[in-house]
Write a structure and sequence with these properties.
The complex is a heterodimer of chains A (158) and B (440). Helices cover 22% and strands 44% of the residues of chain A. Chain A is built from 3 helices and 7 strands. In chain A, strands 2-1-6-5-4-3 form a 6-stranded mixed β-sheet. Chain B has 14 helices and 23 strands. In chain B, helix 7 packs across helix 8 (244-254) and helix 8 (244-254) packs across helix 12. The chains are: A alpha+beta (158), B alpha+beta (440). Chains A and B meet through helix 3 and strand 7 of A and strand 14, helix 7, helix 12 and helix 13 of B.
């Protein structure tokens, strides 16, 4: 029960960091070798050597963060914001050392100028137990609409 | 909409400027779909998208929904996605395998992979009528002309016109450069298509592709961000170099505006254009050297040097294709409406090349061409803003005058002048071709 509660709290915190645009704090949730991965199809088994909507280590996350914050990131200038809701958290595995594998479902509403878009899907998390709490080794994001044509694009992590 | 109808649409194009309605008027859009996209050679897909008999992929040619399908005899056909009976679409999914034949989901008429009628259920009900196998109107209509160049399948919906090779002219280098870089002389598609919709006219996309001035203005934010991280990684790396993918991004900032003028655009008939370019660097890392060795063995020294020496950043095949041959990727432009355009983005694998070479261009595909692109996002923003501005009454013309009068004209080609790589020659050339198609 404790792991269930801790994982839920961790996922809520991640959503809050994304929705409040605290990019560095969000990147800090990852282990040094942590990966953020969004495959274009749910059948994919690994992020390596395959097309990916996102497949980022912390260095690439830093590129994305610096870019989004740059005053000339034109597409980022208009008003935009997101709202995540995470639910259906299910612990799949608890390792002896406290590491956890968990799945959950998310729904993100995004506002850009006057347009609203919805993204929904499934998270898979490999979480490492550290002294400071969990850290993300792998975050897999399977969008329900991964194969649909993207009306405009995604600019930050979901 | 136009206030007064103009009988000859070609008059909307002048050598250095274009009427804004060319981008925003829906009647002109319908006209250009009929005269250009549904007449000239349009890229449908690569034959490796449909490797097995019955495999199909749907694609839009102009406003027409088409099916790319592999027949049992190996031939790749392009058919209209329409049942000749009551007009139902034959394939409702974007891709799949139809088995030994197509079967319409409405009244179960069946068709061979070349579109020919196979069976009509309850055929006695048609006894004495004109409906049956002898009537060609009872088969699925085929594209008027289909040609395959080194695996790239094109269709023309017009019976007459130049052959594919005549149409492509020197822009054929897009496919030669891509295939020649494979030790086996062929490419195969990586089975994933990124699809992105932009809210603007299709021409804005094509004009942007070879606009050598825009990268330093539009993509500065990503270029600088990547350069920052690249410097840190280079300091940490033992060999002193960050992965090449960082260079691909940082070049957008480190190649300054004046350096872009060192490149050249070479413009050809039908609106095609080549940008010679900054990716023409030859790294000397172990992965490249291993690849060079395989290429040398496959082609011999002379031919190898020729292939690797081709200096191209980008090829535009007007009006529907943007090809980055050294990185083995292409974007097919599918106009959905006067202010809505879909791009289908594909990556190809060089047959016989090491995995590391594939992964290098894959990094570019993911970072630049995925729906989470660090580059195209800011282009899409500009396309939308352009379209909004053009739809307003704030002005009547789009200006294309940069380095006007300084292009170098030779028979069959117009090149940008020396140190004038940012010339608007490619846009002038595209609009010249457009005007010719649209001439009354």
């Amino acid at each position: 029960m404790k792991a269930q509660h801790d994982v839920e709290q961790f996922l809520y915190r991640q959503s809050e960091l994304l929705d409040t645009k605290q990019w560095q704090e969000w990147i800090d949730l990852f282990t040094p070798d942590g990966i953020y991965w969004m495959p274009p199809d749910s059948s994919y088994k690994t992020w390596e050597g395959q097309p990916a909507i996102f497949a980022e280590d912390k260095n690439l996350m830093t590129v994305r963060k610096l870019r989004v914050l740059h005053p000339d990131a034109w597409s980022q200038r208009p008003l935009w914001g997101t709202n995540h809701v995470v639910s259906n958290v299910s612990i799949k595995k608890i390792h002896k050392n406290g590491d956890v594998e968990a799945t959950s479902r998310f729904h993100m509403m995004e506002l850009r100028r006057d347009d609203v878009r919805h993204f929904a899907g499934r998270y898979f998390h490999k979480l490492k137990r550290t002294k400071k709490g969990y850290a993300i080794q792998l975050q897999r994001v399977d969008m329900t609409n991964a194969q649909a044509a993207y009306d405009y694009v995604l600019q930050v992590w979901v | 909409m136009l206030r007064e109808p103009i009988s000859d649409l070609s008059r909307m194009v002048e050598p250095d400027r274009v009427r804004k309605e060319v981008y925003t008027d829906s009647a002109i859009f319908e006209e250009e779909m009929a005269r250009i996209h549904e007449t000239v050679w349009i890229y449908v897909g690569h034959e490796s998208q449909v490797p097995k008999a019955g495999d199909y992929y749907t694609a839009q040619v102009g406003r027409q929904p088409m099916i790319l399908v592999r027949a049992a005899n190996g031939k790749v056909n392009v058919l209209y996605n329409r049942c000749p009976h009551r007009g139902n679409m034959i394939c409702g999914d974007t891709k799949g395998n139809t088995g030994d034949f197509f079967r319409c989901s409405y009244h179960a008429w069946t068709f061979h992979h070349d579109g020919k009628l196979k069976t009509i259920p309850m055929k006695d009900a048609y006894a004495g009528t004109r409906y049956g196998k002898d009537n060609p109107d009872c088969s699925i209509k085929k594209a008027a002309r289909v040609e395959n160049y080194r695996g790239f399948v094109f269709a023309s919906l017009a019976k007459d016109g130049p052959t594919l090779k005549e149409f492509l002219g020197k822009s054929i280098v897009a496919f030669d450069d891509m295939c020649d870089r494979a030790p086996e002389g062929e490419v195969e598609v990586v089975p994933n298509c990124f699809r992105v919709i932009q809210h603007s006219n299709w021409k804005l996309f094509l004009e942007n592709q070879l606009d050598a001035l825009h990268p330093s203005v539009v993509h500065q934010s990503t270029g600088r961000a990547a350069h920052e991280v690249e410097k840190i990684l280079a300091r940490k790396a033992k060999g002193g170099a960050a992965p090449l993918s960082y260079h691909m991004l940082s070049a957008f900032a480190t190649v300054t505006i004046d350096k872009w003028d060192d490149f050249q655009t070479i413009n050809y008939p039908y609106g095609h254009c080549v940008l010679t370019g900054y990716m023409g660097l030859r790294p000397q890392d172990p992965d490249t050297l291993a690849y060079d060795k395989i290429m040398l063995k496959a082609y011999g020294k002379k031919r190898f040097e020729e292939i690797i020496g081709v200096n191209i950043h980008h090829v535009l095949v007007y009006p529907g294709l943007s090809v980055q041959s050294p990185l083995q990727q292409l974007r097919a432009v599918r106009p959905l409406g006067v202010d809505r355009t879909l791009t289908e983005i594909w990556h190809f694998r060089l047959k016989g090349a090491p995995e590391a070479i594939y992964r290098r261009s894959l990094a570019y595909y993911n970072l630049v061409n995925s729906p989470a692109t660090l580059i195209n996002a800011d282009d899409l923003e500009n396309f939308w803003k352009c379209h909004q501005g053009l739809a307003s009454d704030g002005g009547d013309w789009v200006s294309l005058g940069r380095h006007l009068g300084r292009d170098i004209e030779k028979p069959g080609e117009i090149a940008s002048g020396p140190k004038m790589g940012t010339s608007e020659a490619p846009m002038r050339n595209q609009m010249k071709a457009w005007a010719k198609y649209m001439q009354a």
